[in-house]
Amino acid sequence: MSTETVTENSSVSMSRSTGSDLAATKHYQTAPEDRISLAQKIIYGLGAFVNNLLAAAIGGMAIVLNLGLGMNPALVGLLGALPRLTDALTDPLMGYISDNTRSRWGRRRPYIFFGAIAAGISFMLLWQLPVGQSEDFLFWFFLIGSIIFYLGYTVFATPWVALGYELTPDYHERTRLMGVQNFMGQLAYVIAPWFLLIMQASMFDNMVQGASYLAVGIGILVIAVGILPALFLHERFSHPQPTEAELAEKRNKPPMWTTVKKNMKEFFDGFATTLKVSPFLKLCAATFLIFNGFMLISSFQFYVIIYYVFAGNTELGAEYAGWSGTIGAVSSFLVIGIVTWLSSRYGKRQAFFIAVGISIFGYALKWFCYNPDYPWLLLLPAPFMAFGLAGLFTLMGSMIADVCDYDELQTHERREGMFGSIYWWVVKLGMALALAAGGFLLNATGFDVALQGNQTDLTILYMRLFDVVVPILTSLLAIWAVASYPITEQKAHEVRLALEARRGVAK
After folding, report:
1. Torsion of CA 448, 452, 457, 463, to 10 degrees
2. Which of left, alpha, beta for 504 (phi over 0: left; psi -120 to 50: alpha)?
3. Phi/psi of residue 259, each to 5°?
4. How far from 336 is each of 81, 255, 382, 394, CA to CA, in Å?
5. SS3 content of the chain, % helix, strand, coil (to 5)
6. What value, to the nearest 5°, has the Cα angle with vertex 81 and ends 56 and 428?
7. Tens digits of residue pLDDT in 134-181
8. What is the pLDDT of residues 214-269, one digit of tens each?
9. With contact defined as beta carbons under 8 Å apart, do 406 and 10 qualify?
10. In Å, how far from its chain's centre is CA 104?
11. CA-CA to 266 of 20 to 30 Å: which in 109, 133, 318, 365?
12. What HEC string does 70-121 produce?
């Protein structure tokens, strides 16, 4: 196919993709210059570890606001949701800033470096919770602190995500890169399930003090590890050359207000253009559904295990919940390898269907395995549920990188930062809504922390139903959203040839 044909007909061919692509898949070999060394993949993956650690920690540690300080679960849910609403602006804005930064250190690396430091320090301070204050005071303390934390988190995470999209142009190497980074990211979920048990350790006077010390350890780790991608990775598009119009504008030195208006217009134009890219919206929808469903039950799961399986025994429930989470995280390492192989063999979309289908089986299995008579059975669904998130984040980053190429073919712009920021805002929005909904749904079940292990039978039934049915429904909807995703290996290769011909580097 000629370059001209690809350029002119790419939108049409994209829209005609069907499941028949599986039978006609043509595989392309990864060129040596497109490969990323294992060391570089691991260093990039350390950013995923930091990203997941912060996300898991702020969600998993929030239970201390309820069990440690007695805050209403609905307010705890709001504290999880409201700060993330600021990301609706800050994430895309950070993406735009990163895309358009021109410095001797690159577009992404300065922000990754200083963002890791800011996120680590603000996370430490957030969990120095004042004891003996009113519920209103605690609410506003945590809300303001969370907003500050998320600003630092955004400065780190958005450029880090964008960096991954541009490290290689190869269809399969992108999946391998995302597989390694997801592998590294899953290490956070190996330790995160134990946070509740750590906060209740006998060395601490209470759960609140445990949270404060745990946060300091997490913050130091975030800083030490988070700066490494900035120090040791190189960008493919570090120094974009200014256009003639930009050089002329610089020479003429327009008034500051004119420059501000121009930048704001470019930001909103880029934001609107990104939201018009149909393949990208399908990926966002699928991610929102799967992640939202998972996060919703992740908060419910603690309560079901503690108050149903173990009749209110928080220490024993926390221990088993920790083992379940660890088994799920360890299983994810194997899942990443399986999903990466499935993607190389059958394509990214088909691999997604298989992974999500297995996770649905795992969610259904919880209804039978969360059993007070045989508590050890609650460990069995974890490996199957691991296919959901492990498969999702192995494939989505690779698929969005393909979308970035497709978008460049249409718009003549590289906008990894904008795509990455909007995508991860969707992830954080899903987390926010899940935490908020989790609090309100927990209240709706009739749960009363004062009753401890004496919750009503109806309360327990509602908790179990929400825990099982919700993620199954969201997963099925995600499969429907991705069913029409059009970018196959063949189409991604055609787009790449067209881009290389345009840049004058076609082979």
Report:
1. 60
2. left
3. -65, -45
4. 29, 52, 15, 7
5. 80, 0, 20
6. 55
7. 889 999 999 999 999 999 999 999 999 999 988 988 888 998 999 999
8. 999 999 999 999 999 999 998 876 555 555 665 565 556 555 455 555 656 666 77
9. yes
10. 29
11. 109
12. CCCHHHHHHHHHHHHHCHHHHHHHHHHHHHHCCCCCCCCHHHHHHHHHHHHH
| Rounded (5°) CA angle 182-325-53 | 50
Residue type, 77: G
DSSP H helices, 347-412, are 348-369, 381-411
Model confidence, pTM: 0.70
C-alpha to C-alpha distance for 289 and 282, rounded to whole angstroms: 11
Q: Of 394, 103, 395, 377, whose CA–CA distance to 235 is shortest?
A: 103
Distance of CA 447 to the CA centre of its chain: 30
Over residues 57-72, the pLDDT tens digits come to 988 888 898 888 888 8
Classify the phi-psi angles of 11: left when phi > 0, otherwise alpha if psi is within -120 to 50, otherwise beta. Answer: alpha
Measured distance CA(35)–CA(171) in Å, rounded: 11
Distances (CA, A) of 451 to 310, 428, 448, 459: 14, 33, 6, 11
Residue 263: its H or E element: helix 256-274
Question: What is the rounded distance in angstroms from the CA atom of residue 167 to the CA atom of residue 43?
Answer: 12
